[in-house]
Write a structure and sequence with these properties.
Radius of gyration: 23 Å
CATH class of the domain at 3-214: Alpha Beta
CATH architecture of the domain at 3-214: 4-Layer Sandwich
CATH superfamily of the domain at 3-214: Aminohydrolase, N-terminal nucleophile (Ntn) domain
Strand order of the largest sheet: 2-3-1-9-8-10
Strand content: 15-25%
Shape: globular
Length: 579
């Protein structure tokens, strides 16, 4: 993990790029580098994980001198790609392998060959073209500013602050109050955008073109063997995929830790690490005295012989933690698990640069409670939407909009004169990926959650929280090969009544204590209502009503709605946002 930034189309920008990279210093405390050429300036902040020597510093230029790159993230299969490329390499870094792959194979072939999490900028000196690219599921962020003349890009929006005036984008605010996060391609400030997951953007002589490089068809192109007829074969194939994903993500020249929640996903990752001889130090966050996960995490750690530490997140600290949150989260964000994630990062950052997590297991193998009996639920919701009792049109629209925190009418009253209409509906209907969702309520929900929640909430939260303390998170379940494979599983391999992640639990039941697989799922969220009524009461009184929104519409709110509103109010105050 690192921080990248750059500007194209404007002369004399080197000092500006240095200013931008200084705003990303937390992402890369181990070094800073810049590159400039007529029409382009690139900057990089380094978190040294592979090849700790100066040979791994960035920006980095290809052997033939044609390409210069800045990379945030990791190419986990860099050793395999290096063997395919051949030739002499100056470093043992994955950055150089990606750079030479782009030079020899072209960007698209190089991207499709990579197993990794990444966001990078590649400058072609010969064609005078800048290419920005982002990984398949959005593990690494990439935002940009474009005013028709100048294009600036960075790992985080805060680094683009010198380029824009801090005016809010109404469509993004509307989407935030619906979803609790701002989904790509939207970004909270005007003239800024997020590059969506699996996309690249090319800039050439003032022409900016964005296109997808990872297609929905690819996510359907890796069918499990034997047409799923042999359960033992399915289990073997699943274990092989998880094993290889873990193997690649253990590659590091610095120590690696493990986030162990006590749930199925992180426990499976811990077991796979142990199988490969990597008994990592394990860390568990005990949130606000809630110890429901702790006994299970302790049991797994003892079973596998892991050193286990407990990180306590106390309610008395929540007001301070919330302010810490807005120092690192540069968009409003209403996922309450951001706070315990930040607590985890602050502890890990003292001794570790890399941590493995179980993120993605719920989206790959249907682990959320709302997947239970989902066909019946969606049938009822569709009927209600048809009768005008719920919002949403079409299969995906009903699924997403029925879960909105604030309904369309509530958002319109809240935003008053700034209300842009139904942003969520427009976003869903214009997204070609979502429109190609497979048949069946469960598969449609998984498809939607991977594209929206996973790529815009889960990955954003993890990256922003951990990067604020110079820590890189690696999630084996987000390996695209595993996601593509699981897309073809039968529904019964995923959900049976109230049982979820069926195939994952079956495949690993012999490796862990059996009761780990039988206990109810317990999320990583926070006791929002208790916080709002207790330690955040003074913060509420001082922050609301938010002057950016209609005052009357902010009355009589509670629970997640009140939390979402408070997060917006504190964020706008911290970042000086205005209409």
């Amino acid at each position: 993990m690192c921080g990248i930034a750059g500007i194209a189309g404007k002369a004399g920008t080197l000092e500006l790029v240095r200013q931008m990279t200084r705003l990303l210093a937390h992402r890369g405390p181990d070094g800073e580098g810049t590159f400039t050429s007529p029409g382009i300036a690139l900057g990089h902040r380094r978190l040294a994980i592979l090849d700790l020597s100066p040979a791994g510093d960035q920006p980095m230029t290809s052997r033939d001198g044609r390409f210069t790159i800045v990379l945030n993230g990791e190419i986990f299969n860099y050793l395999e790609l290096k063997a395919q490329l051949g030739g002499a390499f100056r470093s043992s870094s994955d950055t150089e392998v990606l750079l030479e792959a782009c030079a020899e194979w072209g960007v698209d072939r190089a991207l499709n060959a990579c197993v990794g999490m990444f966001a990078f900028a590649l400058w072609d000196h010969q064609r005078r073209t800048l290419t920005l690219a982002r990984d398949r599921v959005g593990e690494k962020p990439l935002v940009y500013f474009w005013d028709g003349v100048v294009l600036g890009f960075a790992s985080e929006l805060k680094a683009l602050r010198p380029l824009h005036e801090g005016h809010l984008d109404p469509a993004s605010v509307d989407a935030y109050f619906a979803l609790g996060y701002v989904p790509a391609p939207l970004a909270i400030f005007r003239d800024t955008r997020k590059l969506p997951a699996g996309h690249l953007l090319e800039v050439h002589e003032g022409d900016v073109r964005e296109r997808r490089w990872w297609f929905p068809e690819c996510a359907r192109g890796a069918e499990p063997s034997a047409r799923l007829s042999d359960k033992d074969a399915r289990h073997h194939q699943l274990r092989s995929l998880v094993s290889d994903s873990v193997r690649l993500r253990l590659r590091s020249d610095v120590p690696v830790a493990l986030c162990l929640s006590g749930g199925v996903d992180s426990s499976v990752i811990a077991a796979e690490c142990a199988h490969q001889g990597a008994k990592l130090d394990a860390f568990t966050v005990a949130l606000d005295g809630d110890t429901s996960d702790l006994p299970w995490a302790t049991k797994v750690a003892r079973h596998l012989g892991l050193h286990h530490e407990v990180i306590e997140a106390r309610s008395r600290d929540v007001a301070r933690q919330m302010e810490d949150c807005w120092d690192c989260f540069d968009e409003p964000f209403a996922d309450s698990s951001a706070l315990p994630s930040l607590t985890l990062a602050q502890t890990l950052g003292v001794h570790y640069k890399v941590v493995l997590t179980g993120d993605g297991g719920d989206e790959a193998f249907a682990g959320y409670r709302h997947y239970e009996h989902i066909a019946a639920k969606q049938f009822v919701k569709a009927a209600a939407a048809g009768a005008g009792l719920l919002e949403g049109e079409g299969r995906v629209g009903v699924y997403v909009q029925s879960k909105a925190t604030f309904a369309l009418g509530e958002r319109a009253r809240l935003m008053d004169a700034h209300a842009p209409g139904n942003t969520l509906s427009q976003l869903l209907s214009s997204d070609e990926y979502l429109q190609q969702a497979p048949e069946g309520a469960l598969k449609q929900a998984l498809w939607s959650d991977r594209h929206l929640y996973l790529a815009n909430d889960l990955t954003y939260k993890t990256d922003m929280a951990l990067s604020s303390c110079g820590v890189e998170a690696r999630a084996p379940f987000l390996d695209h090969r595993l996601l593509e494979w699981s897309q073809h599983l039968n529904n019964r391999d995923l959900v049976r009544g109230r049982k979820k992640k069926v195939i994952l639990k079956e495949a690993y039941r012999a490796d862990l204590p059996s009761d780990i697989f039988d206990r109810p799922k317990h999320g990583f969220g926070a006791p929002v209502s208790a916080w709002l009524e207790g330690p955040l009461r003074d913060t509420l009184n001082a922050s609301l009503p938010c002057p950016m929104l209609d005052a009357d519409s902010q009355k009589h709110l509670s629970g997640q709605k009140l939390w979402t509103l408070l997060a917006f109010a504190r964020w706008t105050d911290r970042w000086g946002a205005s209409w």
